[in-house]
Automatic annotation (TrEMBL), chain A:
This is Dolichyl-diphosphooligosaccharide--protein glycosyltransferase 48 kDa subunit. Residues 317-449 form the OST48 middle domain. Coiled coil: none annotated. Component of the oligosaccharyltransferase (OST) complex. The lineage of its organism: Eukaryota, Sar, Stramenopiles, Ochrophyta, Eustigmatophyceae. The chain crosses the membrane at residues 427-448. It is found in: Endoplasmic reticulum membrane; Membrane.
UniProtKB/TrEMBL annotation, chain B:
GO terms for cellular component: oligosaccharyltransferase complex. Pfam families: DAD. InterPro entries: DAD/Ost2 (IPR003038). Pathway: Protein modification; protein glycosylation. The lineage of its organism: Eukaryota, Sar, Stramenopiles, Ochrophyta, Eustigmatophyceae. Belongs to the DAD/OST2 family. This is Dolichyl-diphosphooligosaccharide--protein glycosyltransferase subunit OST2. It comes from Nannochloropsis gaditana. Subunit of the oligosaccharyl transferase (OST) complex that catalyzes the initial transfer of a defined glycan (Glc(3)Man(9)GlcNAc(2) in eukaryotes) from the lipid carrier dolichol-pyrophosphate to an asparagine residue within an Asn-X-Ser/Thr consensus motif in nascent polypeptide chains, the first step in protein N-glycosylation. N-glycosylation occurs cotranslationally and the complex associates with the Sec61 complex at the channel-forming translocon complex that mediates protein translocation across the endoplasmic reticulum (ER). All subunits are required for a maximal enzyme activity. The chain crosses the membrane at residues 31-54, 60-80, 92-110.
Length: 463, 111
């Protein structure tokens, strides 16, 4: 399975058209990368994501957190965006402090559980006072970005990384055992999520959940489905707004990293970076010969003509023999729009398994950097049966690469065993020594002269 | 007899056995006995090797060991026959025929 790369048909579902003005830099950034943007209200009766079962758009920007219900016939409540992503579409969704139940349900379809109603993310130590309207320190400044180059691009990493970003909205948690989800922006250690002006409830048996706080507090999370479609869910709509893009941080005097981070995230989120594809899967013996087909075609002139002479047998099955040396190779490419589309992928940790129910061989593939060719020479194990070459490559920020190729492995033919067994040489030697001993003994016995003092052989009554 | 005396006795018996052997046996018999000793040594060595290394090509072990055992039996019969038979060639001829049969079997079974 390979990911779908670089779709440019994008629709933005908005609460109100005023969002176009308040978030103009973000949309301009998308358009500058070639996205064909369509803007509609989420509550519009004419919105449709699918036509005749096919998706009309590749990406959805859902900036409509307060929409309570859809009116268009094609959109069905909280399953809408989940169905869209299940069909391979990408999604960026932004929630807000006053988000509707619909938004909450749609986010939980992806495993992102927003905090309770009327809670806000607050931080009394790391916040942006200039944007604060009521002095409640709800504009959190966080630098806890994931250090992943596929998601954040060249902006990732400590040195020369992005400036801290400003965030005002609702926090969420994602199950830590969820292998599909990736926390992109999390809170600082002093960040917490609570209802402002209300006392924070002490953890008790009644309230099973502790206050969501600290570095595990999710602010923006990305979820990559098993079809490699991506949904990025942010707890703040203001994160993407022009005011926050242009905000200067008080502590350092530099521009907040919102614009850079938001646009880099959108590159990952819309499949313009971090998509892998595999091609040109080949396998053959080390000496260059190809495996045989399972059954050679045999002429059967007495049978009537049929296009399917042996329907239960797979004549095309390729057969190796145990203890063969085989080379498996494939080409892996990565899609990166900034580097010009599909470029050869480089990594030293792509794992190959040779599997028959359990992996019999597990090894890393060797990488040839310029061509993106990954190959490995190994010896087929002593077990015979139906094997498959399996590559299941999951890394955070990259789409899942799953490649399976099936081959058969046969045992030795009766004439392919070693002729002389090394550990049996003493037995061969003893048999031959018996024979030479017999010869020497015979010569000695028949041609030795009787010596002085020999007793004469007992005389039989021959005379 | 006291035990010490019987121990001495055994050594004495062995010594007198060896002396009688040297005196009584003729060259022919000595040659056969040498060959017998060689066969026994080979057989024991093979058996030790199998005990150490394991019975992997079991057919090879059986065949090699059987070649020793079979030769031993045939050579002992030859020795018996020689002590009562004047015509050495006739005895040796029969011995050769049996040995060839033995080698045929051993070769086919040794793999």
């Amino acid at each position: 399975m390979t990911g779908r790369a670089g779709g440019k048909r994008t629709i933005a579902l908005l609460d109100s058209l005023a969002i176009l003005d308040t978030h103009s830099i973000f949309f301009a950034g998308l358009a500058a990368r070639g996205h064909k943007l369509t803007y509609t209200l989420a509550t519009s009766p004419r919105v449709t994501l699918f036509e005749y079962g096919q998706p009309l758009y590749d990406n959805v920007v859902y900036f409509a957190p307060t929409t309570t219900a859809f009116t268009a016939p094609g959109l069905e409540g909280s399953q809408t965006l989940a169905d869209f992503v299940a069909q391979g579409g990408n999604l960026i969704m932004a929630a807000d402090v006053d988000m509707s139940d619909l938004t909450r349900e749609m986010a939980s379809e992806f495993g992102v559980d927003f905090d309770k109603k009327r809670t806000v993310v607050m931080d009394h130590f790391s916040h942006a006072p200039a944007l604060d309207l009521k002095g409640m320190h709800t504009n959190v400044v966080s630098s806890n970005l994931i250090e992943n180059e596929k998601i954040l691009g060249p902006v990732a990493g400590r040195k020369g990384g992005a400036a801290p970003v400003v965030f005002r909205g609702v926090g969420h948690i994602v199950d830590p055992e969820n292998i599909l989800a990736v926390p992109i922006l999390s809170g600082m250690s002093s960040t917490y999520s609570a209802a402002p002006l209300k006392e924070i409830p002490a953890p008790s048996l009644a309230s099973a959940r502790l206050t969501n706080a600290g570095t595990t507090l999710g602010l923006i999370s990305g979820v990559q489905g098993r079809n490699n479609a991506r949904a990025t869910i942010s707890g703040s709509l203001d994160f993407f707004s022009d005011a926050y893009f242009q905000h200067t941080l008080d502590t350092t005097g530099q521009l907040a990293g919102n614009e850079l981070v938001a646009l880099e995230i959108s590159k990952w989120a819309f499949g313009e970076r971090g998509i892998l594809r595999a091609s040109n899967v080949t396998h053959h013996r080390a000496d260059g010969s190809n495996p045989e087909h399972l059954l050679a075609t045999k002429e059967k002139p007495d049978l009537p003509f049929s296009l399917f002479p042996d329907p239960e047998l797979n004549r095309q099955s390729l057969v190796y023999r145990i203890k063969d040396d085989i080379i498996y190779s494939l080409v892996i490419e990565e899609y990166d729009a900034d580097r010009g589309g599909w470029v050869p992928y480089q990594a030293s940790d792509v794992q190959l398994e040779f599997v028959m129910l359990d992996p019999h061989i597990r090894t890393f593939l060797e990488c040839v950097p310029e061509t993106g060719r990954f190959w490995k020479l190994f010896k087929v194990p002593d077990n015979y049966g139906i094997f498959k070459f399996r590559i299941l490559y999951r890394r955070p920020g990259l789409s899942v690469l799953a490649v399976n190729t099936q081959v058969s492995v046969r045992p030795f033919n009766h004439d392919e065993y070693e002729r002389f067994i090394f550990s049996a040489f003493p037995y061969y030697a003893s048999a031959f020594s018996m024979m030479t001993g017999f010869l020497v003994f015979g010569v000695a016995l028949l041609y030795s002269k009787p010596q002085k003092g020999d007793r004469e052989g007992k005389n039989l009554k021959k005379e | 007899m006291t035990p010490a005396a019987s121990a001495l006795d055994i050594r004495g018996v062995g010594k007198s056995l060896l002396a009688e052997y040297r005196k009584a046996a003729n060259t022919q018999t000595k040659i056969v006995d040498l060959f017998l000793a060689f066969i026994v040594a080979t057989g024991v060595l093979q058996f030790l090797y199998c005990a150490l290394v394991g019975t992997f090509p079991f057919n090879s072990f059986l065949s090699g060991f059987f070649s020793c055992v079979g030769m031993f039996a045939l050579t002992v019969s030859l020795r018996l026959q020689l002590s009562s038979e004047k015509n050495v060639e006739k005895a040796f001829g029969e011995y050769t025929f049996c040995c060839l049969l033995l080698f045929f079997v051993v070769f086919n079974f040794i793999g």
